[in-house]
Amino acid sequence: MVVCDICGQALSSEAAVRRHAQHAPPGRQPRCPLCGAAAPGCDELRRHIEAAHPALPDAPRPELAVGPPECPFCGEVAGQELEAHVRTRHRHLLGAPGTDTGNDEQLYECPMCSLTCTDIQILEEHVDLHLEEHNFSEVVYFGMLFLGIDGNIRDLELAQQLQTEEDERQRSEEDKREREEFKKLQRQYGLDNSGGYKQQYLKNMEKEVDRGSMQPFEYHKRKAEMMECLAFGIDDGKTKTSGVIEALCKYYQNDNKDVRRVWLSTGVDHFHSSVGDRGWGCGYRNFQMLLSSLLQNSLYNDCLRDTALIPSIPKIQSMIEDAWREGFDPHGASHFNNRLRGSKAWIGACEIYSLLTSLRIKCQIIDFHKPTGAMGTHPRLFEWVLHYYSTDNEGGAKVVCTSKPPIYLQHQGHSRTVIGIEEKKNKTLCLLLFDPGCPSQEMQKLLKQTSDGTSLKLLRKFLGSLKEKQYQIVAVGGVLSLEEKAARCCASQVLTSEKIP
Predict the structure, then answer these.
(1) Which of 183, 192, 210, 476 suits a disulfide with 405, CB 3.0-4.6 Å?
(2) CA atoms within a 13 Å half-sphere pointing along the CA-CB vector of 278
(3) How far apart are alpha carbons 90 and 69 in whole angstroms?
């Protein structure tokens, strides 16, 4: 049996195939592989190719110029056997559409070379061959034309979408940073609802028990003592050191080396932070120091008749809340959500002012809001303290034990208590400070002062030692009448300070 190359029909002999080819059956006309034209039979197709596509004698042969010919349907290199390849592999594409089945078929015409196909997948493969042979600009143009896509609009929409997504991402990251910063500030200033003095006291003692540095019975004993003190609202006195001012007076009277004159406040007890307030209690401890001095001064007996003993830190928090309820510093109260008790909230000059004024103690806030000397120093602060202590104390004595209370000194992140000032023989000034961060063991050394005065390094602060950007002080100076207290309460609706310079 011999198969017809045109229609695929099986015939009995080569002669039958030739006769059959002379009269191709309807719907099986071969088509020119070069231009797609249909022919009645193979002989007519050959004559069409010779007439319509002759090789030019003066032109190089296509296969020599661009390589062996490739099949326009599948791209396979066929060489001299291109015709046989097309007839064998793609004979189903050579016939006229619709005549072999009697039904109309969908035709797909190549937009680049006008080749007509009845199978969209074959057309796609054929078009891919064109795309591989064209340069980039032609491909883009053809793709736009063939697919019907407006590239400019699509690019604009994509760019807008990407920009929107980027804006949303940046907003989300910014919101996250703000939340984290807010939580950090809450933790730093004790406003994160993590408990207050009592909770921290117990937690730190539990850690000591876990480490083996405290026995369980000692834990329960100290817990009971702490709970009793909190119930009565008084400080347990375990961090207090008394008698330092008296010891300093004796030391300065016997020392004649480099101090020309020294002014000291009235008696002050030193209080340092305990396991219950370490890291945040400096403001409360400085208030205890100031109060310890006022309780020794008869001028303030009437103001402090309900405060005979030094209050505990939770009690001081309640006293500040009482001042807020009276109407003092509403802006500051809102900052703490009107509540301090049970928190580790830091307090500063404004809270100390509100508390003292609510007790009818006359005081003022002085704000050294920027450096007034070289290298970020504050000589005006030193001069103000000297004037505070030396006023009404201009006698010629080397050591002046004044009747002035100590001064509350605040800067960013910490506060201390000014208990005096030295004037050196070279006219330089040196502040004397009580620091709540200094433990009792160190303060006890001041009670046994040696002749060389080395322990005074704990207290002395020269001009170059205080170089924070801003300092605030709260200075006490007398007693308020009820009318004056009411007036200051109204004025604290917008709390102001005296600024220097």
Answers:
(1) 476
(2) 11
(3) 16
436: Cα within 13 Å, side-chain hemisphere:
26
- pTM comes to 0.66
Residues in the chain, overall count: 501
What whole-number distance in Å separates Cα of residue 357 and Cα of residue 479? 9
Question: Domain-by-domain residue ranges, the chain?
Answer: 2-104, 197-499
- CA triplet 447, 450, 453: central angle to 5 degrees? 95
Q: Rounded to whole angstroms, how far apart are CA atoms 358 and 201?
A: 29
Q: Which two tokens stand for residue 70?
A: 């490739």
CATH fold of 197-499? Cathepsin B; Chain A (3.90.70)
Measure the CA–CA gap between 350 and 496, rounded to whole angstroms.
9
pLDDT digits (tens, 9 = 90+) for 125-158: 777 777 666 544 444 444 444 444 456 667 788 8
The amino acid at 133? E
* Contact by Cβ (8 Å): 147, 67: no
Q: Pairing mode, if any, of strands 429-434 and 460-462?
A: antiparallel
> What are phi and psi for residue 31, nearest 5 degrees?
-120, 145
Question: Helices 349-358 & 482-491, crossing angle to 10 degrees?
Answer: 150
Tokens 């309900």 -> residue: 306
**C-alpha triplet 272, 275, 277: angle, nearest 5°:** 65
Closest C-alpha to 364, from 233, 475, 202: 475
Which residue is it, tokens 């997948």?
Answer: 121
DSSP 3-state assignment of 149? coil
Supply the residues annotated as catalytic.
282, 414, 435
- Residue owning tokens 């060389």: 452
Concatenated DSSP letters of 257-304: SSEEEEEE-S---EE---TTTTTT-HHHHHHHHHHHHHTT-GGGTTTT
Of 307, 331, 308, the C-alpha closest to 319 is 307
Given a contact cutoff of 8 angstroms between Cβ atoms, the answer to whether 432 and 406 are in contact is: no
Query: Per-residue confidence at 62, pLDDT binned at 50, 70, 90?
Result: very low
In three-state secondary structure terms, 28 is: coil
Query: Is-contact 247 267, C-beta < 8 A?
Result: no
24-28, 31-35, 155-159: least confident range: 24-28
Cis peptide upstream of residue 501 (ω within 30 degrees of 0): yes
